[in-house]
Write a structure and sequence with these properties.
This protein is mostly helical. The protein has eleven helices and no strands. The structure holds fe (iii) ion (FE) (2 copies).
Length: about 190
């Protein structure tokens, strides 16, 4: 892992956040019996697409050959996950497809995620500095029922977006519905 490079690559706060995500992702990987090394790499690099923001993310995305959707144009931050997967491959030389996919999906999630993808997704929400209302419950669920933790995280995220009057990514809704469905079936 090119850890020192990432430190230079990201703004200091974002780098520190990445280290905290790595810490809890490794714990989750251990808990669920998947590769700690892969979880560490994916978590550490999950936000490597946040080296720039706003409109610049849109132009970066286009430069990297990504198709920018309407909602991504409205909320360029959404693009950092897909940009991050490309940067992880090109700049940080990550070849592992599972790691790249976990980076790519960490913001809006996806239906039927792999355990690595779920871990990076949820670790981002529950890292030690997250203090939003409801985080403790999600922290607990992350280790007992990660699907439920994902459903609750997406619900909270959607609530926040609604309160601000922001649009909601259709994929976030699909992710929530999928993981709610799984929980209902149990
Ligand atoms: Fe992110
Ligand atoms: Fe993050």
């Amino acid at each position: 892992m090119h850890n020192p490079d990432l430190k230079k690559w990201l703004p200091p706060d974002r780098y520190k956040h990445s280290l905290r995500v790595e810490k809890v992702a490794v714990k989750l990987a251990e808990h669920y019996g998947i590769s700690k090394e892969k979880a560490a790499a994916a978590a550490l690099l999950h936000d490597c697409g946040r080296y720039t923001k706003g409109e610049k993310l849109v132009s970066e995305a286009k430069k990297l050959g990504l198709k920018v959707s309407e909602i991504e144009r409205f909320q360029p931050k959404l693009l950092h996950a897909r940009i991050g997967a490309i940067i992880a491959r090109k700049v940080f030389r990550v070849k592992d497809k599972e790691i790249l996919s976990a980076i790519s999906k960490h913001t809006v999630g996806s239906e039927n995620m792999s355990m690595l993808e779920k871990i990076v997704y949820i670790a981002d929400h529950i890292e030690s500095d997250r203090r939003f209302k409801g985080v403790e419950k999600i922290r607990r669920h992350a280790f007992s029922n990660i699907d439920r933790a994902i459903a609750e995280s997406t619900s909270l995220m959607i609530n926040k977006l609604l309160a601000k009057g922001f649009p909601i990514s259709e994929q976030t809704v699909r992710t929530r519905n999928y993981y709610l469905g799984i929980n209902n079936a149990k």
